[in-house]
Hints:
This protein has helices at 2-10, 13-27, 34-47, 49-58, 65-91, 114-130, 132-136, 139-159, 163-174, 182-185, 188-194, 201-213, 217-232, 239-242, 255-267, 269-276, 280-302, 313-333, 342-365, 371-393, 399-413, 422-438, 444-471, 473-496, 502-525, 544-553, 557-572, 579-593.
Amino acid sequence: xxxxxxxxxxxxxxxxxxxxxxxxxxxxxxxxxxxxxxxxxxxxxxxxxxxxxxxxxxxxxxxxxxxxxxxxxxxxxxxxxxxxxxxxxxxxxxxxxxxxxxxxxxxxxxxxxxxxxxxxxxxxxxxxxxxxxxxxxxxxxxxxxxxxxxxxxxxxxxxxxxxxxxxxxxxxxxxxxxxxxxxxxxxxxxxxxxxxxxxxxxxxxxxxxxxxxxxxxxxxxxxxxxxxxxxxxxxxxxxxxxxxxxxxxxxxxxxxxxxxxxxxxxxxxxxxxxxxxxxxxxxxxxxxxxxxxxxxxxxxxxxxxxxxxxxxxxxxxxxxxxxxxxxxxxxxxxxxxxxxxxxxxxxxxxxxxxxxxxxxxxxxxxxxxxxxxxxxxxxxxxxxxxxxxxxxxxxxxxxxxxxxxxxxxxxxxxxxxxxxxxxxxxxxxxxxxxxxxxxxxxxxxxxxxxxxxxxxxxxxxxxxxxxxxxxxxxxxxxxxxxxxxxxxxxxxxxxxxxxxxxxxxxxxxxxxxxxxxxxxxxxxxxxxxxxxxxxxxxxxxxxxxxxxxxxxxxxxxxxxxxxxxxxxxxxxxxxxxxxxxxxxxxxxxxxxxxxxxxxx
Length: 600
């Protein structure tokens, strides 16, 4: 039995379902009294709680929804009996009390056994979820179940205070209308307001889920706006209002916690849909509040000293990140109204060019620029590029947006420190190629111009990598390591679309070839003995950049074939000439020759 339960705990869904079928009559014997079901459940929990949760997740497939509902109510009676027994023990009352009794479990369960209590509550949640569709089609049964649990839930919240118990209790509350449990539902916002900064996600996630299920996401949104506004845009005092007598409860603003709440809302699809369903005016207000982060970031970069501003840098950068992300979600939601929200990202790109990049250029020219300014600048750029990449990937960035983004990328690559975002830039170029070839661009000439810009940027990227490797070798080696995956994906994409964009295909391959030949030729020129001139046996024997590029190329026989064709054309056209360059070309062939391309 222990072996079967261990398998049930860890195995895949198909295997787990078969194991549940095998064990079903042992742990949910529907032909026996309901009290026996609960006893078997407790036994299973004590043997393997994780297996118990898995068992009841699939139990609904092997019995009627009615039995699952009965079992939920049986667990409820069991929990009630435990609570009443604890009350009786505390009161030291020998009289027979009016209580619901579960015979054998009296000697097994106690409310002090937190693990068992939590497991029973978790299983109740699992069972309810498994039959929620059936309950939705039977309003009478659903109403009865809700009334039964709503009547005991306030007491459960008083008794089961451990975090592991609170989470399933809050989830149970979310299954019911807010009006059914007013003592709890009216206090959810207060609970969220009173959490401490840095609270774990499990402290607030289920509470936010409740508000979303109840259609009260506007309350949490208002709290988020208030807290962020207090941090980003402090309210000016009003002399007239100060003369009024007010009784007002003051709360400490917690912008970090507000951003935690907002990020949770945006990350989970059900909650995100609820958030985006609120009136557009409120969404615009939230976007405006988050957008104030740009002004604050500008003031941080202009500050003359590390402590000359009062804002938390990490908090403001997070607000800026969520501003960019929310812009994309709003664009998707209101795409029928034009590019209203996509324009926010376009304007942010222009702001980066005019306000952020100058600080990077200043650092390159002056030594007294604070490193903090550079760090903030890089974070802003990285966030912006990542969001833009995602926007293009999901089809929200049209050609105009992509063209503007390419201009921003070009401005970034013209700085010496632009190397930090090269992995993201390669991902963007890959997405732009795929998007531009699937979108309807007016003319072939326009498409060719657009793709030529992509190829030119790729060339600048490789030049920047080579330059960083020459000037700061350690940083260059780290950069080469970081670009391997996005570079491989970019090359693969270019190869896949070679028939649709032969110009880009040719340009990228010629850039790769030039980078390899130039670096290998440079190494050969510096050779001081015969050993250093020996042909390489693998990519590991090549210089760093050449080795990385060749490792990406030889992963695909199609890329190798195209690369060799490009090499032959360059030799025939005498673009590669001279003994050193031709030796480098020969070494490329040697590397390719030792690769086994036979199918495995």
